[in-house]
Design a protein that fits this description.
The strands form two sheets. A three-stranded antiparallel β-sheet has the order 3-5-4. Strands 1-2 form a two-stranded antiparallel ribbon. A hairpin with a 2-residue loop joins strand 1 and strand 2. It is mainly alpha-helical.
Length: about 375
């Protein structure tokens, strides 16, 4: 199928509405547009440079956790969840009661990412894995009664208040199982010569068009991307997340997807997607470089602590995973006494590594601000 001549699907009359029925994607794909080749080269190179850090950085998983939290916060933000990255890092008992529903959605996303990546060691990228991940995402939050972990058996829609004024109506539920099976076959079809990043662009479009779940489709569709890249060994660790790019270009993101459905313009979508991969991978590479520079600096800084250096190094590793801590958390996670935990906090404040952010005499929280800032830019 050539991008320039393909037809995305057709509208099918239903009772009082028309659903969009997309064509299957498990086939050969070609294109004439030379810009796609150039963008594909740039995106592949940037992805390789990002992956290099996953292979050479010691204790990379400490930093990957922050990438996952940032993705969870941003992907949920696209869906209207109002939780800042600093709040996402706090325990639930420190979150205002009126904000806890949003907080749980973000934390569920973190659990969903971590669980899915772990499962890839024994389970291939599949609809089974996506359904398991969806069940984790929906557990105990808004949408928990909308068939968590199961493909929908009723009609959904995007935009508007009902089927009668919807912006887009995905395929009828009867067709969802076969469309998703076709998509799964496409992920693993070695008989078609389609580069992985182009295949991923098509897959994300197709997933969002099928909208196989009653809720959570945007988040699962964005999570599909790092799962695909790790599954096919384009990334050793889940370090590329496009939600930040999509959130900053939200109107263009939704417009590009709709242009495929309405105008058959797959070229525009693939260009947009590959640009996002190149920009995001480059930004991720730069973030890793800044992390390594900061790590070298602060580890030099703590060398003057004498016999407290071993515990100080343990605290730094804790902060790389979660840059917001309290003395009680340090005491618990490092297995030290309350006196030692408080002494470490004082040392880190004096060295300019930590600063107190609550302004309260009790339940104080401290932040490794220079590190957290790298994930907010």
């Amino acid at each position: 199928m050539k991008f320039e001549t393909f037809t995305a699907g057709h509208l099918q009359q239903r009772y009082q509405y028309k659903s969009f029925e997309p064509i299957p994607v498990n086939q050969e794909w070609t294109w004439e547009d030379p810009a796609i080749n150039t963008l594909l080269e740039s995106a592949t190179r940037a992805l390789g440079e990002l992956n290099a850090f996953s292979l050479i950085v010691p204790d990379i998983d400490l930093f990957i956790h922050m990438h996952v939290v940032k993705e969870a916060q941003t992907s949920s933000k696209i869906e209207g969840t109002q939780t800042g990255i600093d709040e996402a890092l706090m325990p639930e008992d420190r979150i205002d009661p009126e904000k806890r529903d949003d907080w749980r959605e973000v934390r569920n996303y973190v659990d969903a990412v971590n669980g899915a990546i772990a499962d890839l060691a024994t389970v291939p990228l599949s609809n089974r894995l996506l359904r398991q991940t969806h069940a984790t995402l929906m557990q105990g939050v808004r949408g928990e009664h909308k068939q968590p972990g199961e493909f929908r058996t009723s009609q959904n829609w995007i935009g508007g208040s009902s089927l009668t004024d919807a912006v887009f109506i995905p395929p009828h539920p009867d067709g969802v199982p076969e469309l998703m099976s076709d998509l799964e076959r496409f992920w693993h079809n070695d008989q078609v010569q389609v580069p992985h990043l182009v295949r991923l662009a098509i897959s994300h479009y197709q997933f969002e068009t099928i909208h196989p779940f009653l809720d959570g489709n945007g988040r699962i569709g964005r999570l599909l991307m790092p799962l695909y890249l790790v599954s096919h060994r384009l990334l050793a660790k889940p370090s590329l997340y496009l939600s930040d790019f999509f959130e900053r270009n939200r109107a263009s993101y939704y417009d590009s997807l709709m242009r495929v459905r309405v105008s058959n313009d797959m070229v525009h979508w693939v260009r947009f997607f590959l640009s996002g991969v190149a920009e995001t991978a480059t930004k991720g590479r730069d973030t890793f470089q800044q992390i390594l520079a900061l790590r070298t600096e602060v580890e030099q800084t703590i060398l003057g602590l004498g016999k407290r250096v071993p515990n100080a190094r343990k605290l730094l590793n804790l902060l790389y995973s979660n840059p917001l801590v309290s003395a009680s958390v340090i005491e618990r996670d490092l297995g030290v006494t309350q006196q030692t935990a408080n002494a470490l906090v004082r040392d880190f404040i004096q060295l300019g590594i930590l600063k107190e952010i609550t302004g309260q005499p009790r339940w104080r929280t401290y932040v490794f601000d220079r590190y957290l800032t790298l994930f907010i830019r």
